[in-house]
Amino acid sequence: MSARPAIGDLEVGQQIGARTVTVTRAHLVHYAGASGDRNPIHWNERFAREVGLPGVIAHGMFTMGQAVNVVTDWTGDPGAIVDYGVRFSRPVPVPDPGEALVEVTGVVGAIDAEAGTVRVDLTVTFEGAKVLAKAQAVVRL
Amino acid sequence: MGVNLEYAGREYPPTAPYVVGREHLRDFARAVGADHPAHHDVEAARALGHPDVVAPPTFAVVIAQRAEAQLIEDPAAGIDFSRVVHAEERFTHHRPLHAGDEVVTVLHVDSITERAGLAMVTTRCELAAADGARLATVVSTLAVRGADA
After folding, report:
1. Gene3D superfamilies this protein is in (chain B) (predicted)?
2. Domain spanning B5-19+58-145: which CATH class is it, in words?
3. The overall pTM is greater than 0.90
């Protein structure tokens, strides 16, 4: 566990972390069970195509949940994240066999020294295109 | 049938309490790759000042979507789930959720707008502890395509 970052040491634009998230059908089945979101577009190829999708796609909430881990790891305490919002801009198709690779980067977007909070802006892409837009987490340091 | 615009502004009665289970919380954390010890190890969570393992930031969706089902599964609301795309989601945590919390949720339909065959439905779930303390606010927007869109 890393120590909590000191707000006075931070600068807007500073990178706080990055990671690559590997997504397979097995990940989506696990998320479907753990979250209770059992919509077949996330595990049934035939059904997904019937409703006009290119194939099985990841739950937007799976991607949202994975992306924020760079923030948790940076703060050292998941309880420090007081606000987290995203727009879902594109789906992440998940092949079988194979995997989808989602790239996550976090930078300091704004600092409110008086409130003791920092906004982290996340860039989340698949094949170079943003899959989450306006992905922002506010942490209390 | 399209989305029923008259549902905008509705507030539903509080749900039955949802109890946050420790093993469920751990399993959800694994499912989203949240490997921070405070999600898994009670002692690690306590060392950070939490009474039990802490929920990942998006865990509240599990509780919120049960409350949202009151609207989505109501045939009179006219939301055809096979035409739904998740557009936006936001969590505001008033205090971290942890294992053992008993959560009561009030669902609000904040807005329903329709334009060019696309309906945008925004719901807000207010999650509170059994003693009434505010836990989290979950705002979700669904885009519902019309029959000919």
Report:
1. Hotdog Thioesterase
2. alpha beta
3. yes
